[in-house]
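Ex. 9. Protein: Energy-coupling factor transport system ATP-binding protein.
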Amino acid sequence: MKAPASHSDTEYLAARIKDLRFRFSSRNTLLFDGLSLNILKGQKVLLLGPSGSGKSTLLKVITGLIPEAIEEPIEWEERKTLESWGYVFQDPDSQFCMPYVDEEIAFVLENMGVPRADMSSDIEYYLQQVGLGFTDAHQPISSLSQGQKQRLALASALALKPDTLVLDEPTALLDPEGTSEIWQHVRTLGRDKTLLIVEHKIEEIVEFVDRVLVLNQEGRLVVDGSPEEVQQNHRSLLDRYGIWHSESWNVHDQECEIGVEPNTNFLDKSEPPLLGIEHLKGFYDEKACITMPEVKVQEGEWITITGPNGAGKSSLLMALMKLITTEGAVSLQGQLISDTAEVASEIGFIFQNPELQFVAQSVYEEVAFTLQKEQLPDQQIDSKVEQVLKRFGLKELADENPYRLSTGQQRRLSVASALVADRKLLLLDEPTFGQDAGNTFAILEELERYRAQGTSLLMVTHDPQIVRRYATRVWEVEGGKLQADHMGDRFQVKEGTSHVV
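Predicted structure tokens for Energy-coupling factor transport system ATP-binding protein:
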């Protein structure tokens, strides 16, 4: 989009940054060093870059949240911030002001001066726009799945009727159907708006935007062009920085062949199970949220747990860890599990919200925490921590506070902390969300390495590519129940044999 020559730049500018210099107060190196950028009114801009490249930070600078609301060392020669904007953050919980769904939208409407008599119909309208057709919208936000929370955050942003929508990975926790629905709504409702989008899953949106900006790991703007130009002429650069594009999985398949050896013991059902589940029910506020029949998990299985948002996938993992009220029996290596403390030394658990499990003041201490509790020698701890930080691209951030990391870096830290202790069973709730392609593949390859050594994985995911390539078995959950349990596409087993094709 180019402004006519007869009009001033200011008239068509939505935002401008000239010679931006920024660093986090806890770090010595600059993230942006001389970055300059103009955003024109009505442009649809997609911002790409590896995890930790400053995409979310740049959005906060353009909106004025940095430094007006978030104080960090920052300088610029010239800056024009967005005037009217609605923001959907990476973590939707961080932006909610009210405890109930309807009250969250009503809070926005009240500040917009909407008459109380019109609020009920407006609340219903905005919720329906994002696929939240509640029979009763007066329900606790805390009862929603993370995907449903992302939809609610978008509804709140739309209720502001902003000139600009700022969307920071608004579909990271949505199932494929929900992702398509949200982007369809954005395309329709954002047709006359300026859009600033950070997203890793670009298939649904790349044809809608008219401009793509690519940042490298240091926050330098290395590409600024149309979607066609970026995808056709800069494919090798996207691969180098680990940025998702339409052929990322094919490139990965060519470079990394998934092996089935050395562990296919799970095919032998005569072996004692690692995990046994017998008629398990999990409850939130005395209401059943997940029900499981009698199922067994063998050593070395990679079970992906799939299903729509709100189906009960995360609740299943919480029930297995005894973090919610349960009925029925769960056993690990034949021993009944009665509380979380009993299995903490045997099961690694990764929450959907990584920040919920951090206990230390530095990245190094977070990874070392479990090893220190097990009283391993300091030299052995140092060696193991250094290795895992290097494998997950966190070595340079060893002294950083976990809460100062980007969402993608926090997720990698939570996975690293779970893997370093060599648990027999890992429960993983969306371990690859918010990751660029390079880090997604690194996480998956590391998990496969552990599986091949005998670790069993129960992993919630919405990514069908992961299910197809990595799952030895698939649990389909919907409506709080296990609807299907079948072998993954990865292994084709001839009937009556243990032959793996």
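Check your answer against this statement. The chain has a mean pLDDT of 89.
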